[in-house]
Each structure stands twice: as structure tokens, then as C-alpha cells.
Task: structure prediction
Amino acid sequence: MLITTSCGLSYNSKETASKAIQPRSSLSYDTSTKSFGKEEAKVLNTTKTETSTIERKIIKNANLRLELKNLSNISKKVNQIIKSHQGFIANSHKWNGHNNQKTYNFTLRIPENEFETALVELSNLGKLVEEELNSRDITKEYIDLEARLKNFKAQEKRYLDLLNQAKNVKDILEIERELNRVRTSIEQMEGTLKYYDNQINLATIRLKVSQPEPIIDNNSNWGILNSFKESLRNFIHNINLIIILIGGLIPWLLILSIISYLVYRIIKKR
Result:
């Protein structure tokens, strides 16, 4: 038993020694390679996720032109539609045109996610004469502006640290001048971002509603009669132009007639 045990221990010690002597570079390399591959994949996946989750910054606008005979309650109807979609009327204008034709102009602001639905409801208020939709993607400008703003804020922090450390009056004045420049840029960028956010979050709809052009005007004159009167005025105007032209040519015609008569007499005498 002692011999057997000693042989077993001897064998195990040799095996352990051989494992200790065996180089581990390949195992270490494989492990590091696998670890690097996982980390690389993780970074790539994170980048793809960030790229795919970028929120598009889009400004939406629409122009609508409608015709409606009865405009007595048009302001109320438009206001009801806009309020039902959490929007508001930014501007409105009313006037009477030719033949007392009533016309309303509205500038409407509405949340971006309610834009399409509100557009359909507004189009159903009357006869749709014209519709124009446009959108502007400002994602790149928005992200660039955010990056520049972050950079300027970092500069502001550094200048504040330098200002706290400065002891010379000249250095203090120079740092304050640069600090004011940086803060002015920051305020401008923040104002631009606020404007972009307002335009992105609230779409703009410009609505024009007018009465159709009447066939008979308020003086009970037919439209064709007005056309005839206009044609007659144009005819008289053209006659006046012809008379003026002839009046200008008469002196030259007289001179030409006299010269022609004299030439004729001379040729006849010869």
C-alpha cells in the first residue's frame, strides 16, 4: 500500500509539473481574443443602437385654401378643431374683397403628432382648392448646434476656473472679455435651439377660407356684362391710341405728299 501510494503521488506530481511547464500563451491569447471580440461587438451594437435611436428633427408646415359659401361660424369651427388637438390660433385676419367677398386667413399651431389628423378635419370644412405640404429635416443642424453648445459650455467652465486663479488685473480683464464672448455665443445657440424646438414640436398650418366668386355681383349685373364693358373700354382705349398715332403721322404725311407732288411735276415737265 505504501509503495502504491508513493507511486501514485509520484505520478501526480509529474503530471502537475508537466502542466506547470506547459506554455499558456495560446490559452491566454484565445481568452484575450474572445474577450476583445465581445467588447468590440458590444461597442458596435451600442453604436448601432445610438444611430438607430436618433430622433429626427423635422419641421412640418402646410398651406390650405378652401372655398365655403357661409362663413358666419368659420372662426368658431376652426377654433374647435384646433382646441380638440391641443393647438391654438396664432394669428387670424378677415377682410372683404371684390363684390364683398369675405375671406379669412388663419395661422394655426398644432402639436406635431396631431398634424395629419387636424389637417384632414380642416380640409373637410369646405371645398379644397389648394393644398401644400412641406417638411424640413434639421437633424444635422440640431446635433451640430448641440455639440457646439456643449463645447462652449466647457470653455466657459475653464475660463471660470482661470478667473478664480488669476491674480493679475490684466489677466482678469482678458479672461472676462473671453468669458463674455463665450457666454454671448451660448445664449445665441440656446435661443436657436429653443426656436428649433418650438418649430419641431408645433407644426404650422396656414389656412385661407374664402367665399366662391359670385356669378352675379351685388349690383345685379351679369358677369358677362362686366366682361363686355371691359372689352368696350379696351376698344375705346385702342381707338384713342390709333387717333394719337394718326395725329402724330399727319404732318409727316403732308410733307411726303408735297415732296411726291413736286417730284411728279418735275418728271412730267421733262
In short: Residues 223-269 form the longest helix (47 residues).
